[in-house]
Write a structure and sequence with these properties.
Blueprint (H helix, E strand, L loop, with lengths): L8 H5 L4 H12 L5 H20 L9 E4 L15 H4 L1 E4 L2 E2 L11 E7 L3 E9 L19 E7 L6 E7 L5 E7 L8 E3 L8 E7 L11 E9 L16 E12 L2 E6 L14 E6 L1
Parallel strand pairs: 1-14
Antiparallel strand pairs: 2-4, 3-13, 4-5, 5-11, 6-7, 6-12, 7-8, 8-9, 10-11, 12-13, 12-14
């Protein structure tokens, strides 16, 4: 209750999971519980409470003014369209659960919109691009990729999770967040109709014997696929919630980053940023 609507709520909600409720009940009833089991349960409880407390003072992302594209956008992975010169732009990244900004791996994130689409562009330096070609809605998020969480209306907590790999593999899923539950209910069978994706790789995919430079991803998400926009188009003054994430498999290590400080993971809607659609 104390964490309220802060970023710490996601982790505290984990204590409400049926499996964890059962474990906590064991603490009261199982007098013969092995010390190892006791330590594991208490470790999970303490971690959730620590992260929840951390969320009370966690730095929230500032609202972002996202400008309208004045000219058509060609979604080809080559970021030379005029829109990207005036788009909302962020450089650098943050490891999950850390508030210290990093410069490497170099990453630039951009957002724009027009009457039909919400646009995202990612420019990711990467010395070893690992991205096997996968079927739609397969585990694209296990390798190098970028990720978008798009939540038009926080009240209803229904959002798209969209993952794009350098191989142009796609995972997209409608997610529904329970206010008092950890994680979300995913429906990967739901796909974004009219989604446009362009990728450019500077280097070679899945070849660790050479050194790559990086990759760019350009995405157009039709507004009519977003909850709340199925019957009406976007307008100046509209606000949406979002979060941008990059997953990087590098020399055997798997690192996860966000464009702003992010507690827990990308599904933590209480840590999402607000974008304002502006002219």
């Amino acid at each position: 209750t104390a964490v309220g609507e802060t970023p710490g709520r996601e982790q505290v909600n984990r204590l409400r999971e049926p499996s964890r409720v059962k474990l906590m009940a064991q603490l009261k009833t199982d007098e013969q519980m092995p010390k190892q089991n006791f330590d594991i349960i208490m470790g999970e409880i303490n971690n959730s409470l620590t992260q929840g407390k951390k969320g009370l003072t966690w730095p929230l992302p500032s609202p972002v003014d996202v400008p309208r594209a004045k000219q058509p956008v060609t979604v080809d992975g080559v970021l030379d369209d005029a829109v990207w010169k005036r788009a909302a732009t962020f450089k650098g990244l943050y490891r999950f659960n850390q508030a210290e900004k990093l410069d490497d791996p170099k990453t630039t994130w951009r957002i724009a919109w027009d009457d039909r689409n919400l646009y995202f562009a990612f420019d990711c330096a990467d010395r070893d691009i690992v991205a096997p070609l996968k079927e739609r809605d397969d585990t694209v998020y296990f390798d190098d990729c970028v990720e978008m969480f798009i939540l038009p209306d926080f009240r209803f907590r229904t959002y798209w999770e969209l993952v794009i790999g350098p191989s142009a593999s796609i995972y997209d899923s409608v997610q529904c967040k329970a206010p008092d539950g950890w994680g979300s209910s995913a429906r990967p069978a739901e796909n974004i109709a009219g989604l446009q994706v362009g990728v450019k790789v500077i280097g070679s995919l899945n070849d660790s014997t050479d050194e790559d430079t990086g990759y760019t991803v350009e995405v157009a998400v039709p507004f009519d696929q977003l909850p709340g926009y199925t019957r009406t188009g976007p307008a100046v003054g509209d606000t949406l919630r979002f979060m941008l994430v990059r997953l990087d498999r590098d020399q055997g290590k798997f690192n996860v980053y966000a464009y702003q400080p992010l507690l827990s993971w990308g599904h933590n809607v209480w840590n999402h940023a607000v974008m304002n659609l502006v002219e």
